[in-house]
Design a protein that fits this description.
heterodimer, A: 358 residues, alpha+beta, Rossmann fold, OB fold (Dihydrolipoamide Acetyltransferase, E2P), 6-stranded mixed beta sheet, 5-stranded antiparallel beta sheet, 8 helices, 20 strands, 23% helix, B: 561 residues, mainly alpha, MetI-like fold, two-stranded parallel sheet
Chain lengths: 358, 561
């Protein structure tokens, strides 16, 4: 049987507001998710990402705005009439039912005949690699297997879209990596529009076609993972998608040249940004220590190492430049020399790697 | 080798084991022994059981006991189900009232309120007089077995309520939401998901009600119902004597039925501990009631509340009333009943004496047993825990019969009176009966104390005795106190073992006095007054033990000593 969907459905969240009592948890969010896309809501806990997902499933109601799935405005529909598939964080398998009963539940609700249910369930368990587990109880399954059953139970009813609420958070580190590959393969195979909620940027980066960084009930930035990493528009996005050094200061014009001066009075010449207050973002891996290469766009700063952390593949130095602590990541190669704490060093970086934000 | 297996703890283990063997194992074994032994030849026989099943009255009693127990469970369920539904599904203030109802069976056992119920719901009681006058019909609430069922259900339904509410609250919201997500709602969702998941709680509560009702002696006796198993066993022993095997046969049947009910409940619950799988918790989604729903909900609650509080109201009226017969309420009110019981009786004094000694021994044994079982590796240590807990499955009546059988042959030194008729034997019976409560409290308290706290005293070379006295007991104090109060309060209203062991009125405790007063019309007033006092004692006790449990983590309490 072909598991590929016949048609794919998009989702539109339009000007949605949600209040819990006086708490404004979703603040006028609008997102368009394309048919067939793997889309992620990424953000810290309490940012509103799960609320947004539950809104699409129908478990929360918006104070204002619309939820449109495909062509249909589902804003006022109860969850059981939306035909949206959702996998819960704790999988929510019913402990009093076998795997077979769990997976066939949704089909029985649709009054499909017994013979056909059996075939569909079998096919769907095959899809997640759990054929032969029909008569097990959820308590007899490992975390990863429960996860697969939850996926099978959700996909077997052919929902229009698939919602995944932090489905990997209850698994151990190794299994998490395996499962996220499996989820992605499954999504590509079935072709279903998928919305994934997580607080883990690595997960989001690996899985998503596009993602929305959510914080405090608003979308900070939306786009493809790589683009967001390299072009954050604010320090929240920059910091959430990996460690970043942020320098606050202003750009001034001196002798026809633009120059940045941070509040710790670190000076960077020849910058390409308009005059006025701004912030500079620079990733730790863009620095070199005591590099002799000589080019016009290379900027040099004197500093002193105050901390050193061995992280395996890299060594992270904390370097004091004037009063500013700057993180510097140096790739650790076999037998390569390292620097000592209190050592005076020269940092260098290419000016083209700087990102300016307001 | 566990270093905590000190000689003194081994001696304690030995002494406690001897105590349990002597006062629990041997009496119960003697009941079985007598039931299965031919009185004349001394050989093993089942003829006594055959005789039992040949006797029409006994068969009838046997089935009546089953009928009453099952009907009580059903009636109790009809009280408990709507109430548990309201508290778990809706946000409204009535929940507090419903939760408070949970304490009713602890505060007042059914036999205390039985007579009062008769005056309110009997053929010529308040309700039926009223119905007859305005609607020309009567409802036989209290006729025959109905009366027992009604009284038992009113008192014991909270056991179902508490367990059901707990298990409904344990159901994770995602259980419900995932079903909604797959297209299920309303009754379908309730039937397929909510109901099966709440079954373990219901079964636990229902089996407890069944057990309590099946074993209950006081309620049928006070309502003049003799054709049930427990009253038959009692009458047999008290009227014919302790050598007649039939009383023992019935005691054996009571014990076996208790065990069977517990076993069936255990089977029904096997593999259904759903709580482990459901992380997060939070219970089912609750919604607010609209105005009409609110009125209906409060209507149901007030109706059930009136029924449930009827025994208390009736008892209070009875204790202050002069004459109450064929009338809605007593003719006039007086304080004489209270005066009488305070002037003439030593029941209250006896009760305080017996129950405080029993509760004290209970917590003393409780601390030692839990310490020996949890912290040492002394061989056979689990024997203490299992045996002490097994007392839960032994009906009070059967224990009382066993005591009579075993200790009539032992004479007290100097007085040459049998041990079985010495007042202290009542204390020991109460101790054994309430030991499981104290032990449970002590176990809970000890498991919460990290073993490191002891080990840090050990490295400072403290002796075992010092560690127990200065570290373990002070930290367990709140639990011990809660255990003491629970044992004490519930012992004050224990009747079924006591009734077998009271040999004269001077030694009788409160519960026995209520029972004997209530036998006569003239004694009802003072009996009710004693009943009110019992309710007040237990009520205060329950209140404080709850307060202590709630404040268990509070450091102040631990420093109180």
């Amino acid at each position: 049987m072909d598991n590929k969907l016949n048609f794919q459905t998009g989702v539109s969240i339009k000007d949605v507001d949600v209040f819990y009592g006086k708490n404004h948890v979703i603040k006028n969010i609008s997102i368009d998710i394309k048919p067939g896309e793997f889309f992620t809501f990424l953000g810290p806990s309490g940012c509103g990402k799960t609320t947004l997902l539950r809104l699409i499933a129908g478990f929360e109601s918006a104070s204002k705005g619309k939820i449109i799935i495909g062509e249909n405005d589902v804003t006022t529909l109860p969850p059981w009439k939306r035909n949206v598939g959702m996998v819960f964080q704790n999988y929510a398998l019913w402990p009093h039912m076998t795997v077979l009963k769990n997976v066939s539940f949704g089909l029985e609700q649709k009054k499909i005949d017994k013979k056909q249910i059996f075939d569909l369930v079998k096919n769907s368990l095959e899809l997640v690699g759990l054929e032969g587990y029909e008569n097990r109880r959820p308590s007899q399954l490992s975390g990863g297997q429960q996860q697969r059953v939850a996926l099978a139970r959700t996909l077997v009813v052919k929902p229009t879209i698939l919602l995944l609420d932090e489905p990997l958070s209850n698994l151990d580190a190794k299994l998490r990596i395996q499962m996220r590959k499996d989820i992605l393969n499954l999504q590509r195979k079935v072709g279903i529009t998928t919305i994934f909620v997580t607080h883990d940027q690595e997960e989001a980066n690996v899985l998503s076609d596009r993602m929305a960084i959510i914080n405090n009930g608003i979308v900070e930035q939306l786009g493809e993972p790589e683009y967001l990493y390299n072009n954050p528009i604010n320090s929240f996005t920059a910091n959430f998608l990996g460690t970043t050094n942020t320098l606050e200061g202003e750009v001034i014009k001196r002798q026809e040249k633009l120059k940045f001066i941070s509040k710790e009075s670190i000076e960077i010449e020849n910058v390409n940004f308009k005059e006025g207050k701004c912030k500079i973002l620079l990733r730790p891996q863009n620095f070199y220590i005591n590099n002799k290469e000589n080019k016009d766009e290379i900027i040099r700063l004197k500093g002193r190492i105050v901390e050193k952390e061995f992280l395996g593949n890299i060594i992270r130095y904390t370097v004091n430049v004037k009063e500013k602590k700057i993180f510097v990541d140096i790739v650790q190669e076999y037998n390569s020399p390292t620097h000592k704490i209190h050592e005076e060093i020269e940092l260098s970086f290419n000016v083209t790697k700087l990102r300016f934000i307001k | 080798m566990n270093l905590r297996n000190t000689l003194s703890l081994k001696v304690a283990f030995f002494l406690i084991a001897t105590f349990l063997i002597f006062f629990l194992v041997i009496p119960v074994v003697s009941v079985f022994y007598t039931a299965f032994i031919d009185t004349y030849t001394g050989k093993f026989t089942i003829v006594n059981f055959l005789d039992f099943f040949k006797n029409k009255l006994f068969i009838e009693s046997f089935f009546n006991s089953f009928y009453v127990a099952i009907m009580s469970v059903l009636l109790a369920s009809t009280f408990a189900l709507p109430l548990s539904y309201f508290t778990t599904r809706f946000q409204f203030r009535g929940s507090i009232i419903i939760q408070s109802l949970g304490f009713i069976p602890l505060i007042m056992p059914p036999f205390v309120g039985a007579v009062a119920l008769k005056l309110l719901f009997g053929t010529n009681g308040t309700v039926n007089l009223f119905l007859n006058k305005f609607m020309s019909f009567k409802i036989p609430f209290m006729e025959g077995l109905n009366g027992v069922i009604f009284a038992e259900a009113i008192h014991y339904f909270p056991f179902i309520l508490i367990n059901l509410v707990a298990s409904l609250n344990n159901i994770d919201k995602s259980m419900e939401e995932s079903a909604q997500n797959l297209g299920s709602s309303g009754l379908n969702l309730f039937r397929k998901i909510v109901l099966p998941l709440s079954m373990p709680g219901y079964v636990a509560g229902a089996s407890l009600v069944f057990l309590k009702v099946f074993d209950d002696l006081g309620t049928p006796l006070l309502l003049d119902i003799n054709n049930m198993l427990a009253p038959q066993a009692y009458l047999r022993i008290s009227a014919i004597g302790i050598d007649d095997p039939m009383g023992y046969v019935m005691a054996v049947i009571l014990i076996l039925t208790s065990l069977a009910a517990m076993w069936i409940a255990k089977l029904a619950l096997a593999g259904k501990d759903y709580s482990m799988l459901q992380k997060g918790g939070g219970g089912l989604a609750k919604r607010k009631l609209n105005f009409t729903e609110k009125i209906m909900a409060y209507g149901v609650i007030i109706f059930i509340l009136l029924i449930v509080l009827a025994p208390h109201i009736g008892l209070a009226l009875l204790s202050f009333g002069t004459i109450w017969s064929f009338s809605y309420f007593p003719d006039a009110y007086t304080l004489n009943h209270y005066k009488e019981i305070f002037e003439t009786s030593n029941f209250i004094k006896n009760t305080f004496l017996y129950c405080s000694i029993a509760a004290f021994i209970d917590v003393f044994l409780g601390v030692l047993i839990s310490y020996i079982v949890i912290r040492t590796s002394i061989k056979w240590r689990e024997f203490l825990d299992y045996t002490a807990m097994a007392a839960l499955a032994i009906p009070g009546l059967a224990l009382g019969i066993g005591y009579l059988r075993t200790f009539y042959q032992f004479n007290l030194p100097f007085s040459n009176k049998p041990l079985a008729s010495w007042w202290f034997i009542i204390v020991i019976a109460l101790t054994i009966r309430r030991l499981p409560y104290a032990l449970r409290a002590c176990n809970a308290a000890l498991t919460q104390i990290s073993v490191y706290l002891e080990e840090s005293a050990e490295v400072l070379s403290a002796t075992r005795y010092t560690i127990l006295k200065k570290i373990v007991v002070p930290l367990m104090l709140a639990g011990i106190l809660a255990g003491f109060i629970t044992s004490f309060a519930t012992a004050t209203v224990e009747l079924s073992a006591t009734i077998m062991l009271v040999s004269n009125d001077i030694d009788a405790p409160l519960s026995y006095a209520i029972y004997s007063y209530m036998q006569t019309a003239a004694g009802r007033g003072p009996g009710a007054a004693l009943g009110v006092i019992a309710v007040v004692i237990v009520g205060i006790g329950t209140y404080f033990s709850q307060r202590i449990i709630e404040k268990k983590q509070n450091e102040k309490l631990i420093n109180l000593n």
